[in-house]
Write a structure and sequence with these properties.
With about 120 residues, this protein is mainly alpha-helical. Helix content is about 70%, strand content about 0%.
């Protein structure tokens, strides 16, 4: 009985946040330094993300990572979900969805929209 549960988990469990993020970085051909500079996080935090399989950064950091990678909406949701987060119908999340639907990945533009419509920034 235990073995069948183990088999089920190994076939059903999705990749961790760490595995998903670094597969996207590799797939897109980015260097780690390019990403953490685009996202404006320090090297130590990025190293923690890379080296700690169980570490999950704050939601806004993950959103910035998704945008830095210029992920499609489907891939954006895959990375966000791998960390246990999702987009909802809040104004903040709807602005993010709008930007994804319109291929807007520039953080300055996105923050301008967020500030205008949700009184927030990434």
């Amino acid at each position: 009985m235990k073995e069948s549960c183990k088999d089920y988990l190994s076939h059903t469990k999705s990749k961790s946040f760490n595995e998903t993020l670094f597969s996207f970085i590799d797939e897109k051909g980015f260097k780690d330094s390019e990403i953490y500079k685009k996202v404006d996080i320090d090297r130590k935090l990025f190293s923690k993300i890379r080296c700690s399989n169980n570490y999950i950064p704050r939601r806004n950091v993950i959103i910035k990572l998704c945008l830095a990678l210029c992920l499609t909406k489907n891939d954006f949701n895959k990375l966000l979900n791998s960390a246990g987060y999702s987009l909802s119908n809040t104004t903040f999340d709807l602005v993010i969805s709008y930007c994804l639907d319109n291929n807007i990945y520039d953080l300055e533009i996105i923050n301008d929209y967020l500030y205008t419509y949700a009184n927030a920034v990434l």
